[in-house]
From TrEMBL, chain A:
<comment type="similarity">
    <text>Belongs to the bacterial solute-binding protein 5 family.</text>
</comment>
<dbReference type="GO" id="GO:0015833">
    <property type="term" value="P:peptide transport"/>
</dbReference>
<dbReference type="InterPro" id="IPR000914">
    <property type="entry name" value="SBP_5_dom"/>
</dbReference>
<dbReference type="GO" id="GO:0030288">
    <property type="term" value="C:outer membrane-bounded periplasmic space"/>
</dbReference>
<feature type="domain" description="Solute-binding protein family 5">
    <location>
        <begin position="70"/>
        <end position="441"/>
    </location>
</feature>
<keyword id="KW-0813">Transport</keyword>
<keyword id="KW-0732">Signal</keyword>
<protein>
    <submittedName>
        <fullName>ABC transporter substrate-binding protein</fullName>
    </submittedName>
</protein>
<dbReference type="GO" id="GO:1904680">
    <property type="term" value="F:peptide transmembrane transporter activity"/>
</dbReference>
TrEMBL record, chain B:
<feature type="domain" description="ABC transmembrane type-1">
    <location>
        <begin position="94"/>
        <end position="307"/>
    </location>
</feature>
<keyword id="KW-0472">Membrane</keyword>
<dbReference type="InterPro" id="IPR035906">
    <property type="entry name" value="MetI-like_sf"/>
</dbReference>
<dbReference type="GO" id="GO:0055085">
    <property type="term" value="P:transmembrane transport"/>
</dbReference>
<dbReference type="Pfam" id="PF00528">
    <property type="entry name" value="BPD_transp_1"/>
</dbReference>
<keyword id="KW-0813">Transport</keyword>
<dbReference type="GO" id="GO:0005886">
    <property type="term" value="C:plasma membrane"/>
</dbReference>
<feature type="transmembrane region" description="Helical">
    <location>
        <begin position="242"/>
        <end position="269"/>
    </location>
</feature>
<dbReference type="InterPro" id="IPR000515">
    <property type="entry name" value="MetI-like"/>
</dbReference>
Length: 530, 323
């Protein structure tokens, strides 16, 4: 009882101090997010925090639901009408915030604008490149002609925010940031934006879909983890994302907040050097002399290194439960997930035996690198794996660095083994297969993030067949086969799939998303749930 | 005097040039901005396009020369990340940092000077010992930790003050200021105090040492013998003479507070320049880093100059001349 009174007094004092009513009554929502918004131009910088903001102000033809399954957005339906033609039926009577109607002409304009945004450090053109031309059939029908059969066009288009030809013709990135043309069809309208600080939004009363609960949203950028956590504890903000796992157990016990979690689409894995057959740059014998061949090219060594890792221990102890041990790219339920392909069990004895069979009974020395500021607890995961490997006889030097230096070195193939993460933006398996394990090939756009340069023609062939297969079940089977090949050949060593974490006031409810996006329309008062 | 100023100006141009070269080479050595900025989904073609769009395909010396050419015309380049002019980006956040730094310096002076004076005049009193012991804490506690503790106590436990952010701002002369509203002041209080803690201790110690030394001087004895009131001796004769080291140190401290209040700004999510520079370093946004550091160099040179001028005003023996 005493505690109850204390809590009530505390709540009253903080309500007085902040001058705010509880969010459910006030219809105002204050959110704090951990990642920087770099632009309001939805086609300027392809980055998931920017995309989260884009999906509040704008809409895409195809949307992802909370479980990363496609659902209709501005398009009501879509189907391939020929091997290289997709037809999309648009939602009629949708209007932009300024009253202009949304039509097929606007789709054609948007597809034209995407690759033409000047100075873009990372263009959304990667999602529209497959489109050769856009055919406007009538105001609510549009056909995309692709160069070759392209089954993942709907997935790609789920990343492209639709603009208005009339409003956004010649609109510059600055015009979006200043709010002049931050006009979409989305659930919220632009009010005010201060780069690096906050974005203010108000409800779009004319929204075509389910209207958001909040009349006004204050979307703040608070990069520091402790500051964000303190903010929600102090009641300055109602909702935060990227809850640090070190605070998880404290927050779970605290009455003032509620935690929401959701299995994500981001896999944390180790990549291994396949590029240097005559000895990997960071591997030596126990005498410190370089080896004359690269042990990582031996499947038994790769298997041993994978079996030596106790994934369960990492998930429960290092990650405080905010991770699921993984044996493949995607979690259950995702398109291309292989049923029954489990995370390898920790088996140090078996690993030792395999290592001996491969001709390394005493192991060797290796440097395991990784970032220390990029993924949840990345530096600590690398340390834990280093210890597990060392126990195997593979004496591991751990080298955790800031992402800026790390990623450049990994991209120059200077590392032998390193930890990275991958969020599958399309929610299906062709995305990680293509980027992470397909052989590096500029013309096909394969292997862009395959920094270990793994290469397997059999896998590439399956993937290429999948990328041209319009029939969903057949494509899924091909993707599953390719995934199985990659995992059995230990192309990468999967560690775990992260859980996404949010914390909020107890009177709120969040429809938590697998794709990590933090958006105001997913938050509602808890009582409205029933 | 004008020759002196001219020479200082020339020096500053040279230092800024050197700075820009160091930053250019430094960022180049750390890594490749495109690797960091680009979407992981981007293919090889897109990477090549981005490298070209940001002008990173040219050799470093060529990039530097074109930067220098633009800089002479007053254009310090556009941020890779925000696609806004780097200088504009920095200036937008300057008011936030300035009010934080000035607030902290103000606190340091109004708290530090009286306490230091007291400790200097009554060195034997237990209050003085307490002040001195407290100042050791102010020196030795890390800003980061103190900031978090302040938040824990005043925002999370007591709920008196807001934990993060800047609060409402008022537009004066086209810039946003928050110290003009009550809520803005409440937001300012904790970060300013956090930043001031070290400075308060510094001012206390400097003032005390100065007072102790000056009190034994002949002119103080003479002033007393002349029958001047203790107040006049303290506030006119002693005070004026101890101000020289205090002004120097506070001036330089103000500079470093403006330039490097990174820790406080990130703990309190204060949207100032310090946060901008750390964010920019994290994504290797070179135009912003270069512009920022060049501006900081300029600022330090200016502050040094002002300190020298303040010297000569406080102590007629100091002359600003070529030696």
């Amino acid at each position: 009882m005493k505690i109850g009174i204390k809590a009530a007094v505390l709540a009253a004092v903080s309500a007085l101090a902040t001058g705010a009513l509880s969010p459910a009554q006030s219809q105002n929502l204050t959110m704090a997010v951990g990642a920087q918004i770099t632009s309001l131009d939805p086609h300027y910088h392809a980055l998931s925090p920017n995309f989260a903001v884009a999906t509040m102000i704008f809409d895409t033809l195809v949307q992802f639901d909370a479980d990363a399954q496609m659902e209709p957005g501005l398009a009501e339906s879509w189907k391939p009408v020929a091997p290289t033609v997709w037809e999309f039926k648009l939602r009629p009577n949708v209007r932009f915030h300024n009253g202009n109607p949304f039509t097929a002409e606007d789709v054609a304009f948007t597809i034209d604008r995407v690759p033409a945004v000047p100075n873009s450090p990372s263009s959304y053109a990667i999602y529209t490149r497959a489109i050769e031309r856009v055919e406007v059939v009538d105001p609510v029908t549009v056909r995309f002609h692709t160069r070759s059969p392209y089954p993942v066009l709907p997935n790609d288009l789920s990343q492209v925010a639709m603009l208005d030809r009339e409003t956004h013709d010649k609109a510059s990135t600055d015009d979006f940031n200043s709010g002049k043309v931050a006009i979409g069809t989305g659930p919220f309208r632009y009010v005010d934006f201060r780069s690096g600080e906050r974005l203010r939004l108000e409800r779009n009363e004319e929204y075509w879909g389910q209207k958001p609960h909040w009349k006004a949203v204050d979307y703040r950028v608070v990069v520091n983890d402790s500051a964000r956590t303190a903010g929600v504890l102090a009641g300055d903000v109602d909702f935060i994302d990227q809850v640090p796992t070190s605070d998880l157990s404290t927050l779970k016990r605290d009455q003032r907040v509620k935690i929401a979690e959701k299995d994500g689409l981001r896999i944390i894995f180790l990549a291994l050097d396949h590029l240097h057959p005559e000895g990997s740059p960071q591997i030596t014998g126990h005498d410190g002399k370089p080896l004359n061949k690269n042990p990582l090219l031996d499947l038994r060594v790769r298997k041993a290194l994978s079996m030596a890792i106790d994934r369960q221990a990492i998930a429960t102890r290092v990650m405080e439960g905010a991770a699921m041990p993984a044996g493949q790219f995607l979690p259950e339920g995702a398109f291309g997930h292989v049923p029954g392909l489990e995370a390898p069990k920790a088996d140090p004895e078996g690993a030792k035996k395999l290592l001996a069979e491969a001709g390394y009974p005493d192991g060797f020395r290796i440097t395991l690198s990784g970032p220390n500021d990029r993924y949840m607890n990345d530096g600590r995961i690398v340390q834990a794996i280093g210890q597990m490997w060392t126990r195997l006889g593979v004496r591991t030097t751990v080298d955790a660095q800031p992402w800026t230096t790390f990623v450049s070195r990994a991209g120059r193939q200077e590392l032998s083994a390193f930890l990275v993460g991958w969020g599958s933006s399309s929610g299906e398996a062709s995305n990680p297969l293509r980027s992470l394990v397909a052989g590096y090939n500029r013309d096909k756009g394969f292997g862009t993030s395959n920094r270990g340069r793994y290469s397997n023609p059999e896998l590439d062939a399956k993937l290429e067949a999948a990328l041209a297969e319009l029939d969903d079940p057949k494509r899924e089977a091909l993707l599953q086969e390719a995934t199985r090949i990659a995992m059995e050949d230990v192309a990468i060593i999967p560690i775990h799939i992260q859980k996404n974490l949010w914390a909020m006031r107890p009177n709120l409810r969040h429809e938590s998303r697998a794709d990590e996006l933090t958006r105001a329309q997913d938050v509602r008062p808890a009582e409205a749930a029933r | 005097m004008s020759v002196y100023l001219l020479r200082r100006l020339l020096q500053s141009v040279l230092v800024m040039l050197a700075m820009s070269v160091i930053v250019f080479v430094g960022v180049f050595a750390i890594g490749d901005p495109v690797e960091i900025l680009i979407s992981p989904d981007a293919d090889q073609m897109e990477r090549e396009r981005a490298i070209k769009a940001l002008g990173l395909d040219l050799p470093l010396w060529q990039q530097y020369l074109s930067f220098l050419g633009n800089a002479l015309r007053g254009d310090l380049g556009r941020s890779f990340v925000f696609n806004e002019p780097a200088l504009q980006l920095i200036l937008q956040r300057m008011p936030a940092t300035l009010e934080l730094a000035l607030g902290a310096t103000f606190l340091a002076l109004i708290i530090g000077l009286p306490l230091g004076l007291y400790a200097g005049l009554k060195p034997k009193s237990p209050v003085s010992s307490a002040i001195m012991a407290g100042s050791i804490l102010g020196f030795s506690l890390p800003t980061f930790w103190v900031g978090l503790m302040l938040i824990m106590v005043f925002a999370v436990q007591l709920g008196w003050l807001p934990s993060t952010g800047r609060g409402p701002t008022v537009e004066v002369l086209g810039l946003h200021w928050s110290f003009l509203t009550w809520d803005g002041l409440r937001h300012l209080a904790m970060p300013a105090l956090n930043l001031a803690l070290f400075k308060i201790s510094l001012v206390i110690r400097l003032t005390r040492a100065g007072v102790r030394e000056t009190m034994l001087m002949d002119y103080v004895k003479f002033a007393r013998a002349k029958g001047l009131s203790p107040a006049r001796v303290t506030y006119v004769h002693v005070f004026k003479n101890i101000m020289i080291p205090v002004v120097t140190v506070v001036g330089l401290e103000l500079g470093s507070t403006i330039a490097f209040s990174v820790v406080t700004e990130s703990v309190f999510a204060w949207p100032g320049m310090g946060k901008l520079i750390i964010d920019s370093i994290n994504v290797l946004d070179r135009p912003v880093i270069v512009a920022y550091l060049m501006m900081i160099v300029l600022m330090f040179i200016t502050i040094n100059l002002l300190v020298d001028l303040a010297y000569s005003a406080l102590d007629p023996r100091v002359r600003l001349e070529n030696k």
